[in-house]
Amino acid sequence: MTITITAFERSPDGGKGLARDTRVRWALEEVGQPYEVRLVSFRAMKEPAHLALHPFGQIPTYEEGGLALFETGAIVFHIAQRHAGLLPADAHARARAITWMFAALSTVEPPILELGTARILEGDKPWTRERLPLVEGRVRDRLKQLSARLGNADWLDGAFSAGDLMMVSVLLRLRSSGILDEYPNLAAYVARGEARAAYKRAFADQAAINTRP
After folding, report:
1. Do 69 and 62 touch, CB atoms closer than 8 A?
2. Per-residue confidence band for 126, with pLDDT thresholds at 50, 70 and 90
């Protein structure tokens, strides 16, 4: 059965790999599964056909046969469970990899998204000057903890896993802020993720959509 995912017709990031369909593309590339992409406009995302797939009117979605999924964490988890390459065979290591997936999305990403909101969407508000240092502090607190846990290791728990895929995807959002560079082992960790052949293919495919005439 053909796998079909949805992606922005034109991504808000201009093809920098920050749109969440990149995470799903990366996962499918890691496990060697072909897929098709259906591009949707911002208007189409709010119409009934897309809302039937994603009730919050966002991307990406994942369709395979009679199955339709939304939320990148759930989609990547489904891919990792069904195909070898993203979760360890050992039961304990597998559980730890899944834990890191949740940690990326539930613990590390929220303050990073808050930072983006404070800088981009609320940058002109009168409270931003006072609020921004607080938000940046919360991001640094999480990065300090993550940096200490990673140490000198290449990946979070032995071999590369879906946990690393999600964590690298989350940390990439910090690149433009300069904060990631304050933690050299995390910056190197992200660079290792970007250097993977599967990530390069996913990034190139997503970028191609946004650079076409």
Report:
1. yes
2. low
163-198 pLDDT, tens digit per residue, is: 999 999 999 999 888 999 999 999 999 999 999 999
Q: How many independent structural domains does the chain possess?
A: 2
80 Cβ partners below 8 Å, 6+ apart?
Answer: 27, 31, 86, 87, 97, 161, 162
Rounded to an integer, what distance in angstroms lies between the CA atom of residue 145 and that of residue 60? 30
For 94, the 3-state DSSP assignment is: helix
Inter-CA distances, 49 with 55, 77, 195, Å = 10, 25, 37
d(CA 80, CA 85): 7
**CA 8, 11, 17, 19 torsion-angle sign:** negative
Instruction: Quote the DSSP letter at residue 177.
Output: G
Amino acid at 12: P
Domain that holds residue 81: 3-85+198-211
Output the CA angle 163-35-204, nearest 5 degrees: 70
